[in-house]
Amino acid sequence: MGKSYSEIDDNLRRFIEAQRMFFVATAPLAADGHVNVSPKGLDALHVLAPKRVLYVDFVGSGVETIAHLRENSRIVLMFCAFEGPPKILRLHGSGRVVEPLDSEMVEYDRYLPVDHSVRSVIVVDVTRIHDSCGFGVPLYDFRGQRSQYSDWVKKKEAAEGLVDYQKQKNAASIDGLAGLHWVAETKT
Cα–Cα distance between 91 and 124 in angstroms, integer? Predict the structure, then answer.
């Protein structure tokens, strides 16, 4: 039932862009390390080229994806059709982290929101593109984005708390792997 693709063509791009949520999975090298799966939304994903995507990584309470990518670069993004015809699409690849203070970040400015909620950009060089039926994925109706995240960011920005929050929550993963570089460089 599944099919492999050599690149993200126009049909796959339209499918990816139509999904309002996707999932990101990474894992550390250690056998006893914690595998991480994170849901993503907020129109964060962008197809840059037939074998390259990026997603905007917003400030959050954990830093697993960043830490895992720094250690081994392995990543998979999964898209599920919750509306319309059933389909699951997975993009396997090698990911890297671009932090706001990195000189490369200027290349991605057009994808960033105007607030200060961006923690990094994750750039994925796609090495495998594969779909599957998605028959087991239920149908859901999209009702809208939640307001809690943007409300939280506004409160943290007003209190100049986003930086402190990241220093507390994003210095290392739950397995002790290094997280954000700028946090490690400025942490006192």
Answer: 9
In the chain, the domains with their CATH numbers are 3-59+66-145 (2.30.110.10)
Q: Can you give the chain as a three-state secondary structure string?
A: CCEEECCCCHHHHHHHHHCCCEEEEECCCCCCCCCEEEEECCCCEEEEECCEEEEEEECCCCCHHHHHHHHHCEEEEEEECCCCCCCEEEEEEEEEEECCCCHHHHHHHHHCCCCCCEEEEEEEEEEEEEEECCCCCCCCCCCCCCCHHHHHHHHHHHCCCHHHHHHHHCCECCCCCECCHHHHHHCC
Phi then psi dihedrals of residue 124, to 5 deg: -120, 120
> For residue 87, how many C-alpha atoms fall within 13 Å in the half-sphere facing its CB?
17
The whole-angstrom distance between residue 101's C-alpha and the CA centroid of its chain comes to 18
Residue 151 contacts by C-beta under 8 Å, 6 or more apart in sequence?
Answer: none
Per-residue pLDDT tens digits for 131-158: 999 999 999 999 998 899 989 998 888 7
pTM: 0.94
* Cα dihedral 165, 170, 171, 172 in deg (nearest 10): 140
Residue with the two structure tokens 């390259």: 52
